[in-house]
Every structure is written in C-alpha cells, then in structure tokens.
Write a structure and sequence with these properties.
186 residues, mainly alpha, Four Helix Bundle (Hemerythrin (Met), subunit A), globular, binds heme C
Length: 186
Amino acid sequence: MTSSSKMGAKRAVRVTIATALVFTFALMVGAAVQSLAQTQPPAPPTAPSKQAVPDLPKVYMPGLGEFMLVIQTHHAKLWLAAKARNWPLATYQLSEMKEVFSDVEDLVPIYKSVPVGQMIEAITTGAVAELEKAVDEKNLAKFTTAYNKLTAACNDCHKAASRGFIQIRRPTHSTFANENFAPARK
Ligand code: HEC
C-alpha cells in the first residue's frame, strides 16, 4: 500500500465515524424533542379574548316582502300626488318606486326560484315609461290609464309568483294623515 492510499483509507474511516456521530446526534435530539413533547402538559386553554368574536357588521338586508311594502307606499303616493295634480311630487314618487324596483333586481333577482328580477323588467317597464310620459305632460287622463296598467302589472306578477292573494288597487283615499299631497304654494 502506498502512503497516499493509506492516508485515503484513514480519511474514509474518519468520514464514516463523523457521519455516524452526526446521525446518532440527530437521533438523540429527535428523541429528546419527542419526549419533551410527551412530558409537557397540554397548553392551558387561552382565556376567551374580547377580540375573539368580531363585531357583526351592521348590515340589514331586507327581504322581498319589505321591498314590496316600500313599493306599495310609493304606488299609493304616486296616485295621491297625481290626483292632486302635484306633478313634482308624482315625478318624485315615480322615480323612488323605480329605484326600489331596481334594488330588487340587483339584490333579490331570484326569489324562491321565481326570477323576479327579469319579471320586473318584462312586466313593469312599459307601464312605467307611460307613467313618466304622462307625468311629464301633466296629463291626468293619460296618467290614469298608465296607472291602471302598472297596477295590473303588480297583480300579474303576484299571480305568477303564487301570491295572487296580494291584490293591489288604486287607493280610494290618503292613509297618510301627516302628508299634504296638494301642490306646494310658491
Ligand atoms: C316581479 C314580480 C313583482 C312585481 C312586479 C310586484 N310584486 Fe309585489 N310581491 C311580489 C312577491 C313575490 C311578493 C311576495 C313576497 C314574499 O313572499 O315575501 C310580493 C309582495 C307584495 C306585497 C305584500 C307585502 C306585505 O307584507 O304586505 C305588496 C303590498 C306588494 N307586493 C305590492 C306591490 C305593488 C304595489 C307592485 C306594483 C307597483 C308590486 N308589488 C309589483 C312580486 C312582485
């Protein structure tokens, strides 16, 4: 054996021993960690923090029935305003009613598998356009025809949505004792 090959053999032995030591050490550390984990008592449950339950967002989402109650109010006031020839108020009520219908389209497009969003478009659009024209022209006769059309549309949808027992009609008198429907004096 040459001296260089002797040195090579020694080095190989040293490397093997070193590897074995490292391996043993790793095993020991592993075992120590494991026993530590076993002997340590479970962490005590943390006291319920006041932050644990975040404040609920203060958002209230009305259902279709609630939207309809608002629509019912605008529908009644629209008639009372036009009958009193208070055209600015009629314009206002009509645009408020349109807004609520559009909210329903956005927020309750499908109600109990009835596509109310699409039905609003299909059923009310024509009557609403006629009402806008009549109010614009301050024409009570045209308004009355268009109003009857809209009221029929309300009931058509109620029937189609299995709510035929909700029957809308033209108001016979004002139920809003605290509101004057006559045109405002200038
Ligand atoms: C696209 C369909 C649709 C149209 C158009 C529609 N409704 Fe409705 N309406 C419904 C449905 C569906 C309900 C039942 C909601 C429920 O079950 O909670 C309802 C319920 C109502 C209610 C009962 C609310 C209550 O608690 O008393 C009123 C009043 C009402 N609608 C008024 C109207 C008026 C007025 C119009 C027309 C200007 C109209 N609706 C047009 C679908 C429609």
